[in-house]
Design goal:
about 160 residues; alpha/beta; Rossmann fold; 2 domains; three-stranded parallel sheet; two-stranded antiparallel ribbon; 5 strands
């Protein structure tokens, strides 16, 4: 794992599963520690409303938005997201997915997303890969995988 300054220099924005926000700083301080946050506030108006709140005063979903925002303010060329939807309310998941879709589809930022609940991510992805113990067991279009629920279930070891 690269140190954060090396990831940033390489153009990689990272959103870890643990979020790693500065909980003792305000939303605005979390974002302005590295750059100007206007784009993040546009993507997540909810954060703009809470920019003077401490990280500890945010819901889990708001913390995840902040973690994604912090990764975006460095203007990465690649975004890595680890379980971005984990433990979030469905309405927050939809808000996050809209933002991820916008920055990947509309703005062209490349992203690698690891997610245990693939249907939501497949819906906003172009390509998909499924790994089993480090081996690629599927590589193709996200749409093709989404249209084959039996194959997806088999690849993920899900029994219906």
């Amino acid at each position: 794992m690269l140190p954060s300054y090396e990831r940033a220099a390489a153009g990689i924005g990272w959103v870890p599963q643990e979020r790693n926000i500065f909980k003792s700083l305000t939303v605005d301080e979390n974002l302005t520690a590295v750059a100007h946050p206007a784009r993040v506030y546009e993507l997540f108006p909810r954060l703009a409303e809470r920019k003077s709140n401490l990280g500890t005063q945010l819901s889990g979903g708001e913390q995840q938005m902040l973690a994604l925002g912090r990764a975006l303010v460095i203007k990465p060329t690649l975004l890595l997201l680890d379980e971005p939807c984990e433990g979030l309310a469905p309405i927050i998941v939809q808000e996050l997915l809209r933002a991820i879709r916008r920055i990947t589809r509309d703005e062209g930022l490349s992203a690698i997303i690891v997610e245990q609940h693939p249907q939501a991510i497949l819906a906003i992805s172009d390509t998909a890969a499924v790994f089993d113990r480090g081996t690629v067991v599927y590589s193709g279009t996200a749409r093709s995988l989404q249209e084959q629920p039996a194959l997806l279930d088999k690849l993920l070891g899900v029994a219906r």
